[in-house]
Each structure stands twice: as structure tokens, then as C-alpha cells.
Write a structure and sequence with these properties.
The protein is mainly β. The chain contains 4 helices and 27 strands.
């Protein structure tokens, strides 16, 4: 019988299976359940998962309010091999066969913060282990879509303490409702933060996590209805100090209508995509140092004139991308701007040096919202339970497609 296999042979067999496939074996055999709980087995399994992720990008995508796990294969693209992108699974709830509508996703250290479409609840989820923690806002508000979110962590000697930042600071930078609050996963507690600012973050701007802290593209807060040139910069939230750092310089200056989108390289470096509206030229820079109080930019990573390839002005709202440093390409997610029914087709644009340009069709959707994608690296990050109050923890799974 399979349950009589020696431990070393069972470990070898199960190490070749994805984590989601192991959950069904827990109740089948006591020995197997003990094996899956063993820390060394989990670490070895994770190491293999990371090695697989290094060979082909693992991407978490939101398309039509559904969350998918996908793989992107870029090997051989400069030798005539076309890139490919495949859906590996779809996130659905065991308690809701129709799935959960998700509008936004934020990534930090293997954990995803998924914001529900109605903005009235959100979930912290580890796709590798399958554990999720559902949360609700501390204080309700009639305009929940105003809020911005971030997930990060505070480093300590023994472990990482994960936190969620939720805030709103006026509508589009003008005077208005202000609220900053933070949630600690370990203690299951909300706290209000005493934070003020002279800058604002557009409602569509996404924060990006690097080394446990989150950065945003921000601008000088407008005074009244005055227009004109506005200073732009980066703002980074330090999850250890629970404060925003000083303004950090960008390698460009943007104007109304330009596209500015942030991403990260395996959450170790920050990168920024800038596209001027008038020229459609894309430029991407990567940081060599990224801390709450200091940022340093490397030389230009990529500069591409889009007009000879296809006139694509990537939308400033809901935009997303990531880069492959080895192949020196950027993967930008958007709609098909050349199709008469452009809002139906979701596209991954592969853009590189010397005129390299490919499109990967991600399928159609009935929503006008642009697809969102971020690279994913699996981790053993724990969603802890409070010692004094039990937190409801569900299991989500990816059903293979």
C-alpha cells in the first residue's frame, strides 16, 4: 500500500507534487500528515518550488474579478521562440463555488492581500500553503473605494510581523476625509495612526512592496483648484516605524496624462515604468538601493519607442508590469488598443530591445477593467492566529484548469 512506503521514498514522491495537491493526502494517512507538518520537508518542497519559479515566471493575475495563477515562459525568445503564458489554476473558495470577486491584489513576501470587489472585506492569502485570513475594515465608510492598501512586515530577531496599512487622505489630493489605520496579523488588532501629509496618491496608484516596506508614486497636494506643474516623487511607508519617509526622487518628471507604474524585481528592487503621452516612448529604471529614507536609481534598464511597433498608450489607471532582467524585456498587462472591441481582449505585451515586440492573448472579458499581474515567489510566510482570540482561517485552493 502507498501508506506503507518508507519515509524517504514517500518524501521523494510528494516533493514532486505541487503544494495544493498535498492537502487531499493529509487525512488519508497519519504518517503522511506528520510528514507534511515536518519543517524540513516543507523547506525542501519550497526550495523546489522556487527553483521551478526561477525557470519560468509565476504570475498572479486578476482578470474579470477572478484571481489566477499563471506561468510565463520567456526562454528562447531571442532565438525565434515565441513567449507563452498558461493558466495553471483559478482561486475559488470552498465555501462559495462561484468564487469571490476580487478587485485589487497586493503582494509581499509570498502573501497576497486581496481586496473584494465591494471593498467591504479583504483577505490575506498564501497561495503556496493555501491559508487565508478574512478581515473587515475597522470603521465603515460610505466611500470604501477611496481607500488605498498595503501589506508589509516588521523584522524582528525571531520572525517577521506582518501588517496591513489602510488609508484615505482626501479625494484626489484636495481637502477631505482623512484616515490612517494599521492592522497587525499576529495580534488581530486595528490601530489608528496619527499621520499627516502634504502629498497625495492618486486613487489608481498601486503601492509596491520591497523588503517589507511599500512605495507609491505621489505628487504634491494641490491647493484649491489650481492647475499647472506639480512636483512628483516616491513616498515609502516604513512598516517598522509605522511612518512615511521623506520624498524620494524619481529619474523623470511626469505631467497629466503620462503613465507611471511601479513594480518590483522579486521584491528586492523597485522598478518604475514611465511613458510620455505625447510620444508613447517607454522608459524603465531599476533601483540599486531602496529604503524608506533613500533611493538610488541604476542606469536606464529599457527605452523603447512604441509608435513603430504599435501605438499603445498604456493606461495610467490599473496598469501593471514586471521585467525579466536576464532577457532584458518588460511584460506589460493591458487591453488590446488596436482592436475595435479593445475592451474584450486582455493582452500581455512583451517589449524588449532592438524592436522586440510580441503579444500574448490572455483571453476576452466582459469588464472594461484592465488585467492586473504581478510576479509571485512562493514562501513559508505564516498567517498566525492570535493567542487570546481565535481568528477564522479558511483554505482556498487553486483548481487546475
Amino acid at each position: 500500500m502507498m501508506s506503507d512506503l518508507p519515509r524517504d521514498l514517500a518524501e521523494e514522491v510528494f516533493s514532486r507534487l505541487p503544494m495544493k495537491s498535498l492537502r487531499g493526502f493529509r487525512s488519508a494517512c497519519k504518517n503522511w500528515n506528520t510528514l507534511f507538518k515536518d519543517r524540513s520537508f516543507t523547506k525542501n518542497h519550497l526550495a523546489q518550488a522556487k527553483a521551478a519559479a526561477a525557470k519560468e515566471f509565476m504570475v498572479v493575475m486578476v482578470i474579470e474579478f477572478r484571481v489566477y495563477l499563471m506561468t510565463l515562459d520567456l526562454h528562447g525568445i531571442h532565438k525565434g521562440v515565441d513567449p507563452s503564458m498558461d493558466r495553471k489554476g483559478k482561486l475559488i473558495s470552498l465555501e462559495d463555488s462561484d468564487g469571490v470577486d476580487i478587485s485589487l491584489v497586493y503582494h509581499c513576501d509570498g502573501l497576497l492581500l486581496c481586496i473584494a470587489k465591494d471593498y467591504a472585506r479583504f483577505v490575506v492569502w498564501n497561495p503556496y500553503s493555501g491559508k487565508t485570513l478574512w478581515l473587515k475594515p475597522r470603521s465603515p465608510h460610505d466611500r470604501l473605494d477611496w481607500y488605498r492598501y498595503a501589506i508589509g512586515y516588521q523584522n524582528s530577531k525571531s520572525c517577521r510581523s506582518y501588517k496591513i496599512l489602510r488609508f484615505v487622505d482626501g479625494l484626489h489630493g484636495f481637502d477631505g476625509f482623512v484616515e490612517y489605520e494599521i492592522y497587525e496579523l499576529e495580534s488581530n488588532s486595528w490601530r489608528a495612526l496619527d499621520v499627516t501629509s502634504e502629498w497625495f496618491i492618486e486613487f489608481y496608484a498601486r503601492g509596491v512592496s520591497v523588503n517589507g516596506n511599500t512605495s507609491w508614486f505621489a505628487q504634491q497636494k494641490r491647493q484649491g483648484n489650481r492647475h499647472g506643474e506639480i512636483a512628483d516623487f516616491l513616498i515609502c511607508f516604513d512598516f517598522t516605524a509605522e511612518r512615511f519617509g521623506p520624498r524620494l526622487r524619481l529619474p523623470f518628471h511626469s505631467y497629466i496624462g503620462d503613465t507611471v507604474t511601479l513594480s518590483s524585481v522579486r521584491e528586492e528592487q523597485l522598478d518604475v515604468l514611465f511613458q510620455r503621452k505625447e510620444t508613447a516612448r517607454i522608459k524603465i529604471w531599476v533601483t540599486t538601493k531602496n529604503e524608506p529614507k533613500e533611493v538610488r536609481w541604476n542606469k536606464l534598464f529599457l527605452a523603447v519607442d512604441m509608435i513603430p511597433l504599435t501605438y499603445v498608450q498604456f493606461g495610467p489607471s490599473q496598469g501593471s508590469f514586471f521585467i525579466d532582467q536576464e532577457n532584458r524585456v518588460a511584460v506589460v498587462f493591458d487591453k488590446d488598443d488596436e482592436d475595435d472591441d479593445w475592451f474584450d481582449r486582455n493582452i500581455a505585451y512583451i517589449i524588449g530591445e532592438d524592436g522586440y515586440f510580441r503579444q500574448v492573448d490572455l483571453g476576452s472579458s466582459t469588464e472594461i477593467h484592465r488585467p492586473f499581474g504581478c510576479s509571485y515567489v512562493p514562501s513559508l510566510a505564516l498567517i498566525k492566529q492570535c493567542a487570546t482570540r481565535k481568528i477564522k482561517i479558511d483554505y482556498f485552493i487553486f483548481f487546475c484548469l
